[in-house]
Amino acid sequence: MPYKPLVALSLSALLCCSLQAAEQAPIGIAAVTLDQATYDFDTAEQHGIRVRVLARELPRSFAMAFLPDGDLLISERGGNLRLLRDATGSNPILEDEPVAGVPALDPPYRNGGLHDLALHPDFASNGWLYFTYNKGEDVAEGQQRRSAVTLMRGRYADGQLSEVEELFSGDYGSTSGSRIVFAQDGTLYMTTGAPFGNEAQELDNVYGKVLRLNDDGSIPADNPFVGRADAHPAIFSLGHRDQLGLTEHPATGAILSVEHGPNGGDEVNLIQPGHNFGWPTVSFGRNYDGSPVADGMVAE
Question: Would residue 44 count as lying in a domain?
Fold first, then answer.
């Protein structure tokens, strides 16, 4: 009978595979412990890079804002605002207590709370610190809590915020991270995410967009969709997935956004008024199961 040896061989192969699976090394890159004061390394583009560790034990650090006196404000995503004194000096010290005055998120949840930071261009005289904040929806126990992406500001002085006020807020939905930067004309650009669904292509909401606001939260009169009944007037560009980088070119004033794709398809975009950057109808990325996200890779 040929069946017994075949069964034995199959069981042996199964046992071998099981043992190999049990001995498989962990997937991914192991976390690095920064136990030295400085690190020197080279890259293909630049040699002799020295990295100096200024502070440790900052959970989910998300954004930084350097103050005129050399101190540094650090946001912990969804949590606290921290102060690193003498960040540009020889003896940086992280304050034990968070900066007072940031709105509390109770109870905390995955994507809620504090995100990005930006100083007003005239911070030295007015003290305004701007920050984005995912405001939590009031829900009954057991219901999923949604967020509303929100722009806030407060006057910063002596390690605390005062006169905190809400300048702008979107509708409640499935928000992601947000970034802000002031432009040379004094307006503020603000990113919002829409990694799932078609919100990024819809002009009646602020998600999956780059928004442009005045420093008091009002809408600039020259925004590209002002006056259209079918569009939110704060929208400056649309078709964005999950934007987690935003900066202004110091020489040209151009606004550049870094956009995370799903599985590939990351982008650096030059933000232009009224432009549609394609997500989710156009993307180089794929879904996490490997299937294509979009029908095409080039926007019209």
Answer: no
CB 171 within 8 A of CB 149: no
Alpha carbons within 13 A on the beta-carbon side of 100: 5
The answer as to whether 48 is a domain residue is no
Answer for the pair 195, 187: CB distance below 8 angstroms, yes or no.
no
What CATH number is attached to the domain comprising 133? Answer: 2.120.10.30
- Residue identified by tokens 């802000």 is 180
Q: Which domain holds residue 162?
A: 59-270
- Averaged over successive runs of 10 residues, the pLDDT of the chain (300 residues) comes to 44 48 66 83 88 90 96 92 96 95 80 93 98 87 83 96 97 87 98 93 97 98 98 98 95 96 93 96 89 73
20 inside domain: no
Residue 295 three-state SS: coil
Instruction: Give the span between the Cα atoms of 115 and 121, in whole angstroms.
Output: 19
Strand 72-76's sheet: what is its strand order? Answer: 61-66, 72-76, 81-85, 93-94
Work out how many domains the chain is built from and give that number.
Answer: 1
DSSP string, 66-90: E-TTS-EEEEETTS-EEEEETTTSS
Q: Model-level pTM greater than 0.90? A: no
> Vertex 148, ends 201 and 135: CA angle to 5°?
160
DSSP secondary structure of 21-77: HHHPPPSSPPPPP--SSEEEE--SS--SEEEE------TTEEEEEE-TTS-EEEEET
Q: Which residue has the tokens 């992601």?
A: 176
How buried is residue 233: exposed, middle or buried, by Cβ count under 10 Å (0-12/13-18/19+)?
middle
Q: Do the Cβ atoms of 146 and 138 come closer than 8 Å?
A: no
The verdict on residue 35 lying in a domain is no
Note the Cα 129 to chain centre separation in Å: 18
**Tokens encoding 83:** 């102060």
